[in-house]
Amino acid sequence: QVQLVESGGGLVQAGGSLRLSCAVSGRTFSSYAMGWFRQAPGKEREFVAAISWSGSSTSYAASVKGRFTISRDSAENTVYLQMNNLKPEDTAVYYCAPTLGNRPRPDFSSWGQGTQVTVSS
User: Which segments in the chain show pLDDT lower than 70?
Assistant: First the structure.
């Protein structure tokens, strides 16, 4: 079982930046591809970004490509999401999870509490 704790969210003006962190414990961190997902009020959870287990490969949703950067630190068992040039439509609760492609792993169900990102116009 993997445990996840997201942090780093907050209130920021449009055009600003935030860096989210996801602390991972439990199962072997380095063996998982990891990703970030977000859920806005009244909407389904959607894919944001993913990074391979080695960190050598990344992928992004079209809506964030060029603005967000995902990275991981295996020594710290942490995944990061650097978010630049934030837009009001980025407002959501952000979650991390082990991924398979651009979806959560089918054997994963223990979502963390997420971290709220609010972007004002």
Answer: 27-29
